[in-house]
Amino acid sequence: MLRASPSSTIEAWGALGASHAVTTADPAAVDHLLRASFANYNRGAQFRAAQSDLIGDGLFGADGRLWSLQRKLASYAFSSRSLRRFTEDVLTVHLGRRFLPFLDAAAGSGEAVDLQEALRRFAFDNICHVAFGVESSTLLEWGDPRHQALFAAFDTAVEISFMRTLNAPTPVRKLTKLLNIGQSRRLREAVGVIDDHAMSVIEAKGVSQRNSRDEGDPDLLSRFMAAMDEEDGGGDLAAMFPTPEARRRFLRDVVVSFVLAGKDTTTSALTWFFWLLAANPRCEQRVHDEVSRSPDGNVKGMHYLHAAITEAMRLYPPVPFNGRIAVADDVLPDGTVVRAGWFANYSAYAMGRMEKLWGENFMEFAPERWLGDSGEFAPVDAARYPVFHAGPRACLGKEMAYMQMKTVASAVLRRVRLNVGGTG
To answer: Which CDD domains match (predicted)?
Structure first.
């Protein structure tokens, strides 16, 4: 539909006019929504209501002052120094001692492995380590029913919350919540499992802080816990959560938000990357040749690998659809009117599949489109490629995500060849 629209923008109405949305795949409109008119588009009450059980007041559902304070605090955890620690410490532990031995065992046995699930567990263990300073080994403890229940709970809660975002609250939804039946019961049970895990992370972090005199860079959770510290009087952020229970609940929201941000995004990107390489032997060979020239695993100069991962996310972005709510009436650059209260969405998935943006070979996996004449990676404007969002809400973890994906990909491709479906 977006391809067929001359402006690459469409409008949609909900049943009986319950909702109204404008969705675009036009870079100029995306730039308008995410940068030029950033202040006029926020998450909105409907999003917060639909997502409140899952992410509460966490960074990804917050607006205004609550958002800006969290954003500033979280940004310190993604500094250059933190990035070096991530690659030198966290990746060494989880990649070298866990993920690669796991693949070696699978290759030795000749059995098929669910690579997406393995990558998800690897990413989950990584985010728990780097963001919370808490060790997790769900990859090695594959058969542990507690891990299976936790991942199932996240899947259920995300699915139900997302579908609720698309539909305005109804009396039926309120009734099911009151009676604790149907989807409301499934959501409540799933969130209960997630809550137990999040609070265990917070408790473990509290014990670690009391027993440690580590003077290194604090991790993300440590920074948020310090901001909530009553003995220090707190600050603007702490003032928004005046009671101990409210502060604990907020820390829970922080944990859940960053688990969601770090668990499935890189997992999705790497899964599609490996799948696309398996379907394109020429590209696989070029990546293999490049990573083989760097036996020490230094990924900084691997421009073709960087291009191949970027190209995979063009076709299969980890977050294919994103949106905001208009605060006041507005007009997009193409003349489309957006009324106050309407959804204003963009589709990174559609944008990656537009001939007008990527040329005649827009449906082909072609990493070369990202390379300049000298063979170096050549990025495009984020409004044309909003895989990591754009503007003030651009992804804080972009560089860390690329570092993780390139390091994993190079290490895997130096050791094994992946066959889709376990054939060959």
So the answer is: CYP86A
